[in-house]
Amino acid sequence: PDNLRELARKLGVRMGSAVNATALAEEADYRRVLNREFDHVTAENAMKWESVEPQRGVYAWEDADAVVRNALRNRQQVRGHTLVWHNQIPAWLTEGVADGSIDAAELRKILRDHIMTEVGRYRGKIRAWDVVNEVVDDDGNLRQSIWLTHLGPGYIADAFRWAHQADPRAKLYINDYNLEWNTNKINTTLGIVKDLKAQRVPIHGIGFQGHLGIQYDYPGDFADIMRQFTDLGLEAAITEADVRMVLPVTPEKLATQADYYKRMLSTCAANKRCAEFTVWGYTDRHSWVPDWFEGEGAACIMDENLTPKPAYHALLTVR
Ligand code: XIL
């Protein structure tokens, strides 16, 4: 294969990227490479609650619409990210809950409304939704959040049921980080999935974010872990792959990074139920890593000039 779209066809795995809506609007080279290489996209921020409803009842769909429009024009499928999360929630909501002006009953209505509105808007245009994101913490407890505190653990089942009502054909995912190796998180998440299935809640997929770093050992059990979830009948996806490093960049580090990317994609390619491999930004020009991990960067498969790095070439060799 000469590019990732061709690779996707050969492997039977959709190849995706997170999309920076500003770059999509303003950078022709960014747009060109995105549309040449990928058959799947996720809005990096544009579909998050704080982006789509910055003031109560005031919606801002422009960026999200632009990502979806570009995708449809370029025969790309879309992952919706994300409906229920503890981060990037609008201030009016957090503040209203904190000052008591929004009580639990109202919060539940607000959540239902948010899910129905957003999923409904893109009904038929989103292949898969990250319905709940990062709902388990690293100790394996349900994450403390306004959702858990005020609505109780049933908010997870509710969210899936509402999303299914709003778009019955979308694949509905639970998505998390460190799920490639953290035993506490894995076991709790397996429990949640089994529990939802026992209650006949519409859950269809498990998303492994895939945020790795070369300063840590590669998570060698990942393939087995993915299998434990897909054996429950779930589809799987690697939803936010990147492989960061402590700067400066060296040829050795780039080679290790390439190996980590290749092993992640191979894990997906080897599992019949793994449907999608998405990178969390394809270029070091637009990556969350330097802003979030001090001293780290260069996590993507292309550099700032959109030149493919060893990781890109390594992905093309996956069979
Ligand atoms: C990140 C974005 O990349 C940043 O631009 C933003 O400032 C913070 O969120 N897990 C997720 C993603 O599910 O939504 C996060 O995206 C990265 C970690």
UniProtKB/TrEMBL annotation:
Stretches that traverse the bilayer: none
A family per Pfam: Glyco_hydro_10
GO molecular-function term, one example from the UniProt record: endo-1,4-beta-xylanase activity
Family listed: Belongs to the glycosyl hydrolase 10 (cellulase F) family.
Known catalytic reactions: Endohydrolysis of (1->4)-beta-D-xylosidic linkages in xylans
GH10 domain residues: 1-318
Keywords noted in UniProt: Carbohydrate metabolism, Glycosidase, Hydrolase, Polysaccharide degradation, Signal, Xylan degradation
The UniProt record lists the keyword Transmembrane: no
Annotated GO biological process: xylan catabolic process
Protein name as it appears in the record: Beta-xylanase
Record organism: Planobispora siamensis
EC number: 3.2.1.8
Top-rank taxon: Bacteria
